[in-house]
Specification:
The chain is of the alpha/beta class. The protein has two domains: 183 residues, 3-Layer(aba) Sandwich (Rossmann fold); 59 residues, no CATH class. The protein has a seven-stranded mixed β-sheet, with helices on both faces. α8 crosses α9. It is globular and about 50 Å long. Bound molecules: guanosine-5'-triphosphate and magnesium ion. The site of guanosine-5'-triphosphate has 16 residues, from α2 and α5.
């Protein structure tokens, strides 16, 4: 399910992608974001999927590399966008801000989160954060060859069940797991496969505050963003995120205004 309503926003979506992210998508192309911690093999996955059909530059207004590449699968066109490596999406760095803003406002049809199979517990943090924003997530557990060498065994069915999103094993440098990744991306992007991401539950006080905020947040962001996630950011006092909402969604927000937050 998308937080964005489909057809009426398509034109706006193309404009947001072009102007804010420098991504020139063709009509009908599925947009896939590629996220992950630094050095987990994102670019290796990106190169393996897109081959030479790549375009590199910078994110608009930033000195951070941006790579986009196209591929076709089952006669459907895909555009893969390689995001900067980040440990979190809380936007403490310019890389985190770019990754978060693209996942939130670039409205990708699916987001791949590449994880390092040899240190899943650290990497899963980012996957859970992405799953709070969007249900259209595919987890790609990469570096399986390294995990095998270290005798690390991963129970994939259990991991998939726990996360509630598709999980694919890969050793991208050897080209392993990429067929399964393409097929899973196809299924998630076309809506043939629906996910049910595990939802993080916070303390009773936070959950209560989220419930208080939700009606107003829902009205404000309409279907454009996951309202629960926006409410959590408001509770976080994340002013930079409010600025992003104003910028991308053309909404005038005044941080002093939400009385529900002030009253908490
Ligand atoms: N053994 C092994 N090495 C891999 C695999 N995938 C990628 N690598 C290697 O891991 C290193 C980092 O890969 P990159 O693709 O640059 O990782 P990245 O996530 O794009 O890194 P940043 O963009 O710097 O965050 C490279 O030396 C790759 O060759 C894999 O499946 N197995
Ligand atoms: Mg890279």
């Amino acid at each position: 399910m998308k937080w964005y309503q489909d057809t009426p926003c398509r034109e706006t979506h193309g404009r947001v992608l072009r102007e804010h992210f420098g991504v020139a998508a063709e009509a009908g192309q599925y947009i896939i974001a590629l996220a992950g911690n630094p050095n987990v093999g994102k670019s290796t996955v990106f190169n393996a999927l897109t081959g030479l059909r790549q375009h590199t530059g910078n994110w608009p207004g930033k000195t951070v590399d941006n790579a986009q590449g196209a591929f076709t699968y089952r006669k459907k066109p895909f555009l893969l966008v390689d995001l900067p490596g980040t440990y979190s999406l809380l936007a403490h760095t310019v890389e985190e801000e770019i990754a978060r803003d693209f996942i939130c406002f670039g409205e990708p049809d699916a987001t791949v989160v590449v994880l390092d199979a040899t240190c899943l517990e650290r990497n899963l943090n980012l996957a859970l954060q992405v799953m709070e924003i969007t249900p259209n997530v595919v987890v790609c557990v990469n570096l399986m060859d390294e995990a095998n060498k270290k005798k690390i065994a991963i129970d994939f069915p259990a991991l998939e069940k726990e996360l509630g999103v598709p999980v694919v094993a890969a050793a991208a440098r050897k080209g392993e797991g990429l067929d399964a990744l393409r097929e899973t991306l196809y299924q998630v992007s076309t809506g043939a496969r629906q996910s049910n991401p595990r939802r993080l539950t916070y303390s009773a006080a936070v959950e209560e505050a989220v419930q208080k905020l939700l009606p107003n947040v829902q009205r404000l962001v309409d279907h454009k963003l996951n309202p629960r996630w926006v409410a959590l950011r408001l509770l976080d006092g994340d002013k930079a995120f409010l600025e992003s909402i104003s910028r991308y969604l053309d909404l005038q927000l005044n941080w002093e205004a939400p009385q529900e937050v002030a009253a908490l």
